[in-house]
Amino acid sequence: MDVLNGTDSPSYTPCFVVDYNFEVVQEFIVRIYHSDGRSPPRDLDKHTMIGGATFHLAALMRSPSQRIIDSFQNGCGVLHVHAESLSSTRDNFVTAFSAQKLVNKEGFFSKSDPFLLISRQNEDGRWSVVWRSQHVDNNLNPVWPECKIPIALLCNGDIDRPVKIEIFDFERSGKHVFMGQVETNVRLLLQARGQPMPVVEPEQQAKKKNYVNSGVLLARSPSIEKNATFADFIAGGCEISLSVAIDFTSSNGDPHSPTSLHFSDPTGALNCYERAIASVGEVLRPYDADNMYPVYGFGAKIRLADGSLSPCQHCFPVYPGGLEVHGIEGILQAYRDAKTAVTFFGPTLFAPLIRATTEKVAAMGCSQEHQKYVILLVLTDGVINDLELTKQAIIDASHQPLSIIIVGVGAADFSEMHELDSDDALLSAGGKTAVRDIVQFVA
Predict the structure, then answer these.
(1) What is the pLDDT of residues 44-57, one digit of tens each?
(2) 3-class secondary structure for 49-62?
(3) Which of 85, 168, 325, 435 stands the most exposed, by the fewest C-beta atoms within 10 Å?
C-alpha cells in the first residue's frame, strides 16, 4: 500500500504483478482512502474511503494501449489503470545515484531535500512511476545509497526504452517541489559510466535563453546484475538432488490410533503423510538427476544395537549409512519402515536438520563448472519448538545452493511456517539477514 500526502491526483509507485488467465473472469476492485495520518495503511476501518472502481482484467488487456479510465462509483474521482505483459527477465539494474549543484528550492535559510522518482514510458507515450528513492536532507549535492531496480520493472527488458529520472524537493505536506529531470534509457546510463548528465527544468529552459542546466545527475558504477532463472540452470546441466525429511514427533499422535496423521488405514488408503509424499514427490521427481533419494527422520528415538532407545534424534537417516532409495515408492517404503521402527518423541526441532543438510551441501564441491543444487523436502504437522534457531539456520543456509520446501500435513496452526516463508521481506534473525528467500511453505 502506498500513501501519498497532500495531493488529489496521486500516481502510485507500486506495480502489481498478476497472472492473466484468459479463460477465467478476473475482477479487480480498487478503493482509494484518505489516510488519518496515524493508523497503519492496512487498518482500513480507521481511514475514510474516497471512492472506488471495479474492472475486469480481460477488459484492461483488450483495451487500446492496455489502459482504462473508469469513474469512481460515487462520482468523486477517476481511476487510471495501465497494464503490460511482463518480460521474463530477473536481472537488476544496479547503480548509486548522486547529484551535484542542484538549484535550491528552499530559499536563503535552508536547502532542498532531494529525492528521485523514476518513470518508464508506455507505448501510448504516457509515463508510469516505477521507483522512488529516499530523500536526502538539506543537501544540494546528494548521494543516494546503491539501488537495485528490477529490469522488468524499469524497462520491461528493453534497455532502449525511454526512462525519466525526476528530482523533487521533499516536503512533509506531500506537495513536493520539482527540481529538474533527466530523460535517458538504461543503455545510455550504462554507457555514461558515471559521467554527469544535465538536470533540466523544461519551463526554465523555455524561458531563459542562456539556461544551461539545474545541476547534474550521476549514475556511479552502473551495471546489469544477471539472475539466471531455474530453467537456465537446468538447461545448463545443473544437477538437482532431492532430500526428504519426515516428522516423527509425538505431536502427530499415536501412529496406532485412527486419529494420528501417521495411522495406517487397514483398507490400504494412504494416510496424510503418504499422500503428501506421493503428490509433492511426483512434482519434484523429474528434476532429480538419478531418481535416488536420501530419506531422514526427526523428532524420534531410534533403537540402538544393544536394544535400548537413543535420546531423541533430530536428524537421522531412515536406513543405516544414509542409504538412498529409488523413486517415490522407495520413499514411501522408507517412511513405512521407519514409523514402525522408531519411538515417536519430541520436541520438534528444525534447526539441527537444516544445519546438517547445509553442511552436506557445502561439502558437495559445487562450482560454476560443476553446478549442483539440493531441495530439502520437509513434511511436518506444524508444531515447531525452535523457531528462532531455525530462522538462524535458514539464514546461514541461504548462502548455499539449497532450497527448503516445507509441506504442512494435517490441519494444525501453520502460522510459524508462514513466518519462515519470507515472501515479502528477506528473513532476519540474530542481527543477520538471509541473502535470498530459500523457503517455500505448502499446506
Answers:
(1) 888 888 888 888 88
(2) EEEEEEEEHHHHHH
(3) 85
Q: How many residues can be counted in the chain?
A: 443
Evaluate the omega torsion of the peptide bond into residue 320 and state whether it is cis, within 30 degrees of 0: no
Phi and psi at 145, nearest 5°, equal -60, 155
The answer to whether residues 130 and 153 touch, using CB atoms and an 8 Å cutoff, is: yes
Single pTM value for the model: 0.62
Query: What kind and span of H or E run contains 355?
Result: helix 351-362
What mean pLDDT is reported for the chain? 90
Residues 343, 339: Cα–Cα separation, whole Å: 8
Cell of 423: 515472501
Parallel, antiparallel or unpaired: strands 402-408 and 372-380: parallel
- Alpha-carbon distance of 299 to 24, in angstroms, equals 44
* Site of grid cell 539466471: 228
Residue 255 contacts residue 299 (beta carbons within 8 Å): no
56-71 pLDDT, tens per residue? 888 887 777 778 888 8
N- to C-terminal Cα separation, the chain: 27
* Contact indicator for 98, 142 with CB cutoff of 8 Å: yes
For the chain, the 3-state helix, strand and coil shares in percent, each to the nearest 5, are 25, 30, 45
Single-letter code of the amino acid located at 28? F
Instruction: Please enumerate in sequence order all residues whose Cβ is within 8 A of that of 412, keeping only pairs 6 or more positions apart, or say none.
Output: 381, 382, 383
Q: Which residues contact 45 (CB under 8 A, 6 or more apart)?
A: none
The 10s digit of each residue's pLDDT in 346-380 is 999 999 999 999 999 999 988 878 889 999 999 99
Rounded Cα distance between 97 and 116, Å, is: 9
Collapse the DSSP code of 279 into the 3-class scheme (helix H, G, I; strand E, B; otherwise coil) and give the result.
helix
Phi then psi for 88, rounded to 5 degrees? Answer: -85, 0
* CB contact at 8 A, 219 and 194: yes
Spatial CB neighbours of 426, under 8 Å, sequence gap ≥ 6: 433, 434, 435, 436, 437
